Amino acid sequence: MAKKLSYQVLEDNGGGLHLAVFSGDECIYYASGLEHLPVADVQEMLQALRDGAHPVDDGWESDLPDGYTPQQLYDELTSYEYGWEIIADDAGVYPERMGAAGRMVFGLDD
Hints:
Blueprint: E1 6-12, E2 17-23, E3 26-32, H1 39-50, H2 70-78, E4 84-89, E5 92-93, H3 100-105
Antiparallel strand pairs: 1-2, 1-4, 2-3, 4-5
């Protein structure tokens, strides 16, 4: 049985939500704009990852700009000390780190 991939959901200080999926230490899949998707779609993606889905092998769409790899986009976002937070990962969900977009996607909005 293949090892499940790790992932992070990141929220930037502009309310953007990003999904980074890792095989070991390498980011192999990156998607941004999750805040524009229906909440159910985001939750289905995360559940699929928890169930062992592999975004690359399973042909998930990605919005990578030409010439960029998932690792480059992840590194670009996280290269700044401030301006982003990991709001969920394969180990849990962190409401205390979330802004409005994260709270909406995880059903925690007031």
